[in-house]
Design a protein that fits this description.
This protein is α/β, with parallel strands linked by helices. The chain is 22% helix and 31% strand. It has one domain (2-242): Spore Coat Polysaccharide Biosynthesis Protein SpsA, Chain A (Alpha-Beta Complex), CATH 3.90.550. It contains six helices and 13 strands.
Length: 244
Amino acid sequence: MQGLITAAGSGTRTGLNGRFRKEMLPIYHMDSGKIVLRPIVESIYLRMKGIGIKSIGIVLDPSDSRTIDYVRSYLPDAEILYQPERRGYGDAVLRASSFIEDDMFLLNAGDGLLLPQDSYGKLGVPSSEIPVLSVMKVDNPQRYGNASIEERSGEKLVTDLLEKPEVPVSNFAICAAYVLPRSIFGMFDQDSRNVELTPAIQKLIRSGTEVRAVEFQKSDWISVGVASEYVRILQRSYDSLSVQ
């Protein structure tokens, strides 16, 4: 299984506005038994490496020289991929279509992380042979990718997906950590001005592919995308390590 991290966002809601990428905002990370600060994109990368994923691509903006230089200096084994235009999250994922060769890959947005150290293992990484979404219950599902879930034989299966719906189908929101098949690349609407991932996964489901959901607590997920939340996110990343 390969890994993919998307890190080409401009950080508008953080107030960074392209000065540097939100994916470069630091969180607390455990390094050789010591708690240190590392960019969140690096923490995600190291978490992938730690679970046995050796081939990891990171999608960057080609004009983002700061992040490119950082990745080349400190994550030299990462494959740098480029998203030349901002055409949506799905388009960023599509930039990896020639890089991903394995049947399955782990996708994680570069500005968010599941805090529990065993999170990827719960998603079936690195051996899962079926698509898996991480989900959490929220009070405002209209702000997220929204999943309808059905229990079958003790497992949660995704039956429907909507992107930020006005009328949610459930209170399950998608965390931006996924196990996806390589066939997802054929599910995107590449002619759309804004290419999204959620409709592509929905199309995968409607094609007959079984997609499993693994539920996490809302407190398990952090995202550095909003400036007003960052101080709390930073504290939560520290607390998750200090209790281990």
